[in-house]
Fold this sequence. Notes:
By secondary structure, the chain is an alpha/beta fold. The chain is 31% helix and 34% strand. Strand 9 and strand 10 form a beta hairpin. The chain starts with a helix and ends with a strand. The structure holds guanosine-5'-monophosphate. The site of guanosine-5'-monophosphate (5GP) has 18 residues, from strand 2, strand 7 and helix 5.
Amino acid sequence: MKQLKEKILTEGIPVNEDILRVDSFINHQVDPGLMREIGKAFASHFADQGITKVATIESSGIAPAFATADALGVPLLILKKQPSKVLNSNLYQTQVASFTKGFNYELTLSRDFISEQDHVLLIDDFLANGEAATGALRLLRLAHATIAGFGVIIEKAFQPGREKLSEQGIEVYALARIGKMSAGHIEFLA
Ligand code: 5GP
């Protein structure tokens, strides 16, 4: 997606070989016009697949997932992060390792909002090691929902996330694929 790649090149800050900061348009301040286009791009790629819900992990995935859900005309499910184990029989729960924060957290989803009738599109801001997406998919499978695929704004293709998801039979659709990064320099894959 050309508009997104230009924005990454002008406003993205590659901190080092691993971490890209996109605080000015995705993670801290959000560019609504760009999010609308991102939502349309995901919706058009996954159109006609019978998606009943879009899911994301709070909080950075919410803006692109909302735009996608809006474009598809289906509800948005926000998988919630809990700091510690909350015992609640009405919740599906799973543990996820955080790439950026370096600790584990509990991901939860209320049984009220998901069922085996659902065909879910998962959306997130970044794909790195694939831990967040794998945790989210585990949660959706606990509810016996089926998965349409994973749409991600930025894939760091030099990290193993895509491989991890492909091994699970999950289609990964990334709007920008970074092949290489260093402080001050970003290279996209075609
Ligand atoms: P994974 O679980 O794939 O290793 O990491 C995915 C999650 O970590 C994303 O939801 C995102 O919030 C965060 N993340 C991973 N890499 C980056 C990065 O380079 N920059 C930012 N801002 N977040 C990242």
